Amino acid sequence: MLTYTEIPGVYVDPKKNICIAFDQVEASIVKSSGKRLEIAIRNPTKYPARVKFYIDEKIGEPLSETFLVKAKVVDLGPGETKIWWKKH
User: Fold this and answer.
1) Nearest of 76, 13, 9 to residue 44 by alpha carbon
2) Which of 76, 66, 2 is nearest to 39 (CA)?
């Protein structure tokens, strides 16, 4: 339970182009430009997945205890891949 509230399923550092998956999913940065960030998230399992991911846009600043409350959530079916994007 603590892991669910303290660690996102996917962590992204857009400035360093780092994307780390802590959950059962696979994630990678597809495109990172000054205006757009695209992340591919794949569920390789045969079970549905609901994954929180956090984009660390304020690196160096302390995170609040509830920083994951505003985390993005992606639902993936078994074997499904989705591309999530965000404008900078």
Assistant:
1) 76
2) 76
To which residue do tokens 């399992």 refer?
45
Please give the helix or strand (H or E) that residue 86 lies within, else none.
strand 81-87
66 beta partners? none
CATH topology of domain 2-87: Immunoglobulin-like (2.60.40)
Structure confidence at residue 5 (pLDDT):
57
Residues of the chain with pLDDT under 70: 1-6, 88
**How would DSSP label each residue in 14-74?**
TTTTEEEE-SSSEEEEEEE-SSEEEEEEE--SSS-EEEEEEE--STTSPPPTTGGGG-EEE
Domain ranges of the chain: 2-87
